[in-house]
Structure formats: structure tokens, C-alpha cells
Fold:
Amino acid sequence: MPPVKRIPYFHRITIMNEKLEALRRRIEHEDNLVNQRLSWLVASQAFMLTAFAISLNAPLNSLTPAYAAANRTMVLLLPYLSVACILILWLTLAGAIWSMKLLRGQAAAIALPNDIPVQSPPAIRSLGLAAPIGIPIVFLLLWLALIMAGNGGAHPVS
Structure:
């Protein structure tokens, strides 16, 4: 029978407890979801802004009555659809952030003094939330300003 290898002391203290490691992986998964959802938000808003700009710049003299009505509808609805996309994606971001908070609480409850921290300190995590919270606000304010401008008759199609 081969001799049992002893794990050196250094390696014993760096091995994270299994439950803590599982929680760390779940937090990492939620963090990846936040990144994906933020990418979806930016991509969807880029698409909506492009469609809105193209609709606004459609040549007025070449519009058939049916096309003019469709263009007017696009210009009126795109800001509202964009706001709806922002709100839906914001809810999913909030869900992931909330989930990470709960997982961090579970990790804190089982962490031992020698365990490696699962995440950064709260102040650093707060800075990391600037994009998932701030970018939707920027797009939301942009669309609300466009909605307000549109209600004032800013679109030239009649």
C-alpha cells in the first residue's frame, strides 16, 4: 500500500472550505449574469437609438401615406419601447444584485477566520455597481427627454 501523502501546511490554509467555494462560484455566476444583462441593455439601446434616428431622418418628400403613418408610429413608439426594455433589464439586474447580496450573507455566515474573502469590501463593491445602476439611468433619462421633446411636436412628419 503506497504511503499517504501529507498536505503541506501552506496548502492546507489556502484550500477554501467547500461550501464557501460553492457560494463563491454562485456569486461569480450572478456577476457574469450582470455583465451579460448590461451588454444586452447597451446593445438594445444602440439598436433602438439607431432605429429612432433613421426614422427621424426619413426623407419627407418620398413617403407614401402608408409609409408616413408607419414612420410616425415608429417615432412615437420607439421611445416607449426603449423605456420598457430598460425597465425589464433593470429588474433582471436588480435580481442578480439582490441574489449576490444574499449569497454574500450566506458566505459570511460560514466563513472561518482563515478563509479567503469571497468578495471585495463593501465600498469597492458599491463602486462596481456604478455601471449596472448608472447606465440604465443615463439611457432612461435620454429616452424621457426624447419623449418630452416629442410631445412638444419635435417630429416633422405630419
The two ends are 90 Å apart (CA to CA). The helical segments are 9-14, 18-56, 65-110, 122-128, 130-151. The longest helix spans residues 65-110.
